[in-house]
Specification:
Length: about 270
Amino acid sequence: MLEIGTQTHPLPHQDALYVLLHRNQVLVEQDNLYLIPFTHFQPNSKMSAIYCGQWQGQDVFVCRFESVPKGFTEVGLRELLFLQDQDHYLLLSRAHQLSTWDRDHQFCGRCGTPMQEKHIAEHTKICPTCNLRHYPRISPCIIVSICKDDHILLARGLHAPKGKFSNIAGFVEAGETLEQAVAREVREEVGLEITNIRYVDSQPWSFPHQLMVGFFADYVAGEITPAPGEIDEANWYHIDNLPHIPNGATISGQLITHHIAHINNKK
């Protein structure tokens, strides 16, 4: 897996591997290979290489290109992530989030001073005028699988494809605990009261900088009432007869699968 560490960040060099981005697409070689040796592309002064960590003993950097270099094709980040195992998923997610941070923090958000220098051992930019530190933004989101006997609640948002269902999810508000966010989002989006909220797992979601925190919960009371403008439809589904659910590479797909196993083990 990727070793992040706290050592001084090296400069880009010929023995490193590179993740190359163009806009929000990943540049790949044959067979969707995205860890690119230095000798396979022509570097330029605008690619702004960001150190990600070490992968199997090799330094890894992420770079953005303004045009697609010869010999590469573009693949959507979401599509490529779904093809990865857990370790590659985390590497690719980190690379994209760090590159997004670098692109979106060209100027100080407090005083507007250009910020061209990065810290030598941390992923932060320090404003040379007001000393404000700018770290990569991470937005915590909750996602929860809710059971009622041997049924699971699944919902479809307004922009989700017809027939594709997922869990209730939402951003954590300022001053709110994760568990409070779970209860509030469920109440707001489908009108249900829940209990026994317990943490299961987490996963970075690089669209562009979420950290998804997954929970199980049990139904207590209420009738499903989809929130207007948020949820198009929601229902209880028997664990042996589920609709189309998210890919198993996502935390949503994993929560549903693990929750089904948990319910079956209790029988």
